[in-house]
Amino acid sequence: MNKITGGKAVKSPGLLSLIITILFAGLIIFAGAAEPSGPGDFTSNQFSKSGICSNCHGSSFGEWAGSMHSLADSDFFYNAMLQEYGVAAEAQGLSPEFCSRCHTPIGVVSSEIPPLDGSHLSEVSKEGVQCDFCHVVAESEGIGNAPYILEPGSVKWGNREDAESPSHETEGHEFYDDSAYCGMCHNIYHPVNNLTLAATYTEWEESPYAENGVNCQACHMTPGIVKFEKNPGKAASSGPKREHVYTHHFVGANAFVTGEMGEGRHEKRAIEYLQNAAKLEVNASDSAEPDENVEVEVKITNVGAGHKIPTGVTEEREMWLELTVSDSEGKELYHSGALDSKGGIDPEATVYHTVFADTDGKPTVKVWEAASIFSDNRIGPKESVIEKHSFIMPENASNPISTKAVLHYRSASQVHIDELFGEGTYDVPVIDMATYPEEEEKSSTPGFGMLGAVVALSLGSVFRRIKK
Description:
Layout: H1 15-32, H2 50-53, H3 58-64, H4 76-92, H5 100-103, H6 105-109, H7 131-134, E1 137-140, E2 148-150, E3 155-158, E4 169-172, H8 179-183, E5 187-189, E6 196-199, H9 200-205, H10 208-211, H11 217-220, H12 255-260, H13 264-274, E7 278-284, E8 293-302, E9 318-326, E10 332-336, E11 351-352, E12 354-357, E13 363-364, E14 372-376, E15 384-392, E16 402-410, H14 414-421, E17 431-436, H15 449-467
Parallel strand pairs: 3-4
Antiparallel strand pairs: 1-2, 5-6, 7-8, 8-15, 9-10, 9-11, 9-16, 12-13, 12-14, 16-17
Keywords: Membrane, Transmembrane, Transmembrane helix
């Protein structure tokens, strides 16, 4: 993002002048080359706690509080995995700051990490991805692994060029309307072998949403559920009325951690996002003769997510189809995708997620061990997959037969959570993303549709108007 602008040459230089000019230009480029902010660049007292921001930005603070951004450092699941990573990092010489650059960025740039147990973290660093961190990002050196460049101080950055504040200086920056801002942390690459571990930004960048100008903020920083919706109001209590103000819930799909940590508002919104991300269509006969082979096709479509489903740390995520076929008396004729007594998914069911393999080719959920991608069958934006099932009609079954399909999701496997915390400590909630037949009409059409295409094409101009 660094730019060097030179003037026009007024005459052809001699050889010596040309050499001096080239050397001088090289020095300028070298001097101007920015590096991502790193350990020891700042101290934590250069950053403000988020509670201070709430004095003028009460709505934004209230939306952020309890979000996964605010819980980024205190998330119990993350911390359990972080301690395992810490042992491996020490043994294998991996960077101790790797995970923390996104989860407690102030802690990293203030050299309060390591140790990874958080014992050296200041209170402001414990706030995770908090207000002052986000609004002192001056630029980024790329996508993934958090290459942010910070300029903490009296200037706070945002997407408005006309913003004024009695408490601090303001600076407008188009970067804050750019999905690349989110891409700083929402792509992750292995710190040694550079294997892609998470690619939410890239999934969006290669999607129809990106082609139509729909950025990440249009879904995750507006009040609408997986669709852009204007949010008129004030960004600050003393500020002017705006046509649209970004919300700060930053909702994704994590109803597990938010629910367990008592953040019901964010848990509820996560469930709503999940329930508007996919659609099921079933092609099945309603009758069959005894001993006849009955075939059932289920089409799963990603209708509402601008990235693959599931996304994020997809070695943990699980999305799968449960299919039940019954006869007229309610007798079960076929069942796939059920959970066993310990929360394990039917081994015959297809689980949509990423499976990493270690150097021996064995599956692993420990991403620091990942050397390759064993499989990845997730569903891209606006894409569909078809599952085919079949069974033999029993002799004593009665017509008509009925088919029910449910697309389930959970943030992590129950087996893995039990391994980390012990059986009975946490029950990972299973969210029904989509059902067939639909139990009730949703209040809003999932995704963007034709109307959304028009909205998408106009988003850029909407945001430009907002800043004027």
